[in-house]
Design a protein that fits this description.
single chain; alpha/beta; seven-stranded mixed beta sheet; four-stranded antiparallel beta sheet
Length: 366
Amino acid sequence: MRFNAILNHLNTYEPGKDIEIIAKEYGVKEVIKLASNENPLGTSQKAVEAIINNASKAHLYPDDSMSELRAKLATKFGVRIQNIIIGAGSDQVIELATHAKLNSQNAFLQCGVSFAMYEIYAKQVGAKAYKTKSIMHDLAELKSLYDKHKDTIKILYLCLPNNPLGECLNESDVEEFLGGIDEDCLVVIDAAYNEFASFKDMKKHIDPAKLIKNFTNTLYLGTFSKLYGLGGLRVGYGIADEKVINALYKLRAPFNVSNLALKAAVAALEDKEFAKNSLENNFSQMQRYEEFARLNALDFIPSYTNFITYFFEEKNSSDLSEKLLKKGIIVRNLRSYRLNAMRITIGKPYENTRFFEEFERILRGN
């Protein structure tokens, strides 16, 4: 059977390894997953109760207008409900934006290393990728590449903070940069981890209401998978000028987010205590990872997310990741990004302690 020739040049997204598979494969009783940036505190109890209370309605199609969740988000961010679209994860909104703006005659632009799905979706429609030589967001380099290829670049991605590296730009620098981008280029601000960045440093905070008012060619992305602990339910959203949202709606499949997911997301937004505890745990434990890196002479990028990335010179990240797997600890090897590095999700205190103990033994050759 023959398939679209584009598939010959398309990589498959590499998800985090499954706990049960690793436990069986390596014969480990307790597996700690520090690979997929899931919330180590689990899910808000309010969200769990919302799922239970609405489970009997699983046979019904969801409200396709998703008005309850959109209204909650509109209030939270100070925008109109017409400025919001809900997706099965924010990556579905990325897919919609790709089909709205890209084709085989044009291209997208991103920094050297960022979320893999930008390129995967773009290649599905035959679009070209432009990336900076710098792995992180260098606005001068991005602007130079954009100016050189502005006739073909129709989407520009800024992942703030950046996954899988953790670095983040200041809002003021982003605003200055956006002033030099043509209105026909859609600038996607992927803010999946922006709650973490805002908690650590308000200079990194991106205000979607201000963003879309001043720059009508921007699309702000958010998710319930990280801070709100709903990764398994797949709920994300996009905030943009109404014209952008209307275009995306023409591509959205009906009933794309389930009843239970929508109810859980509404409840999660209301549980401010859970979000606060999650942020506090993350950054108090992050300090332990930074100190561990210093004590073991490991390079890292100061992170504004719920993960940290370690870089290696003499040792091999694939070998190190495999040795951790044998100890029952799953991390994200970044060889697929052509980096000799690993990304570690910040876990619970006892999970992090176990990582430090096992990884220190590995680094010392024990």
